[in-house]
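new request in #modeling-help
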Amino acid sequence: MSETRPESLHRRGFLAGVAVAGLGAAQARAESPAQGPATQAPAAPAPDKAKLPGYVAWKDADALIVHSNQTIETRRSAFGTGLITDESALYIRNNVNPPPESIVADRDGWRVEIAGVARPGTLTVGDLKRLGLTTVATVLQCSGNGRKYFQDRLPPGQKISGTPWTVGAAGCVLWTGVPLKAVVEAMGGPASGARFITGTGGEEIPPGLKPKDVMVERSVPLAALDTVILAWALNGRPISLAHGGPLRMIVPGYSGVNNVKYVKAVSLTEAETDAKIQAGSYRMHAVGEKAAPSQPPVWEQPVRSWITAPLEGSRAGRVVVAGVAFGGVNAVAGVEVSVDGGATWRKAELVGPDLGRFAWRQFALPADLGPGTHVLASRATDSAGNVQPEEVPANGGGYSHNGWRGPAVTLTLA
Amino acid sequence: MSETRPESLHRRGFLAGVAVAGLGAAQARAESPAQGPATQAPAAPAPDKAKLPGYVAWKDADALIVHSNQTIETRRSAFGTGLITDESALYIRNNVNPPPESIVADRDGWRVEIAGVARPGTLTVGDLKRLGLTTVATVLQCSGNGRKYFQDRLPPGQKISGTPWTVGAAGCVLWTGVPLKAVVEAMGGPASGARFITGTGGEEIPPGLKPKDVMVERSVPLAALDTVILAWALNGRPISLAHGGPLRMIVPGYSGVNNVKYVKAVSLTEAETDAKIQAGSYRMHAVGEKAAPSQPPVWEQPVRSWITAPLEGSRAGRVVVAGVAFGGVNAVAGVEVSVDGGATWRKAELVGPDLGRFAWRQFALPADLGPGTHVLASRATDSAGNVQPEEVPANGGGYSHNGWRGPAVTLTLA
């Protein structure tokens, strides 16, 4: 008996059994904003199999919402109640098509150019493994996670384009690699005048396009040198191509785009890169304005949280309201939970291991929810005293949403 | 290009590229004891695909050594340098065939009987999720991990039967579930006289056998009530059948057999169970003696560590010697590393997040290894001051090995 198709059962893990049938509807409701104008349903995923593009065909289709081949969201229900996010359920956001799978055929042979140091040169991943070792847990989150909550509240005539992510363009994972600081030290230290760490991704530039318009090259402040790692493993395994293997530059606490995939060059630079993805995108600007280098870049993530349980489909009675909370580069100081749409709040308990200040914490609070409709919300405070606001004014790129009302969960229990 | 078989490439993850060809030989050497009598090679795994039984066909065959359908070891090389162990590479040890996959079709419907409390009764996993939530990282380790190191040193005429595990019947994983204490409190607290927590597994008893001879029923001291959880998730996903889903009793710091899979009953009892797996097995006794209830049971794991990098196939020069160390129920206080077979020792650095006292820590120490043969060893100390000895006297079951010499790695570098 145990010889029969365990793989498919295992792979559908999160959505086992009777829960599957009703998920499409439940998901649509759970993801709709607690308040705000009635909006169109999101491009509704079929309740059976999402169509995964080939480079992520190994992922758990039932855990994911496919917005496009390059934008794939983790279902809120797929976060479950665990602490970390399995790679099979982790969101995908690419700015350019991934390189071919052949680049992970010889992982230790992947080369990265190190510049802006006293003795520049090129190292292989094999070389990097001789320079140091550490692991860091981070929340990897698309800069636009929660964009839908901005879009839903826009007045007529205003528009923010971009993927309408709800809460699922994020995950908490463990990266293993070498501290960039150890690499820089091995190469004689930073060149004089260095102010930024600039990483360049290994994507192929499609012919006919200007490289600067397409390349994924991002700069972050040199202060991050204390925490950046060049990572070869994710959750204990070599990083898949889809998530930036064989080598990814991890900038803990910074939004996803700053964590350069298939990193082929790291340079300590005097200025931010003028690649379009840095100079003309991922900037904080007003709705309707264009991005420009004078505007603040999207770097550190603000304090944020959301509910992961219970979701639609639960019964009335005693429940454990649970979710995740993180503070970007700051630790989480506390989380409050409301089961009445923000009218009253109670302090939740932080449970499970503390994976460090860049990771998310789990929180839990028992609550008695009678039959009827309830609006569950969470509001986190970070170690610097920042508290999630109720709503955040929209910005033109729909970045860094961290209001608590948008991701609130409306539940009708019987 | 990215549409071509990414799955298979991903799945072979750990052994990508040129390293594959030489692995069979490298593994055999790496796993052989640093000193001691010349022994037969272990039942050598083919360097290509290990044959995985159907219920674990979804695992990464390249990461595993199949001793039998019920005993499957993680290759030392598959630990990589990460902090946690992916379920695809986690070892398997079953005492009885797993139940059919159908038991994970409706996970929340799985029933567990709770007895030895003021108000006994049966709860579903769905009910348990309403009682509490926590996550705990533990080293899950077969009681017999390292048995080969005992077997290799036995004088002629003596014998310890059992799987010749080296270091790979272990992993560090995150479990999510409800604290058993919360369940017991919800049911009115322990019945008077309770001294043990007794968990019963959901294995089917083959017809014609006496249930007590076959059933997986284990008792641990009631003091563990402060830390035991009933877990439904492993590394953020629902627990696979192979690892005890839909529900497993996790006794942090205790060896694998105490962590009852597919747990169908938990009882607070006055005495240890008289099931054979508790009364007549997993006891500390002399070689040649039979197990008996008067002997100490195999419960808490002793302090232990091993090297995971570099392994055979590395080049001479500067390397980072890395590995994992744990202290059972005690935190790791420190780890020393020797690159000369134990003649001299240096303090290694503990790196990466501390997942709590039941988890393992990563350690790392830079070292310059010239051409020639080197014997790499690690020696951990726990927070109670216990230090790994060089060798451990053999015991009849080959349990709880924690000498540092056995798992030392002999490397020849060019």
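bot summary: The longest helix of chain A spans residues 23-31.
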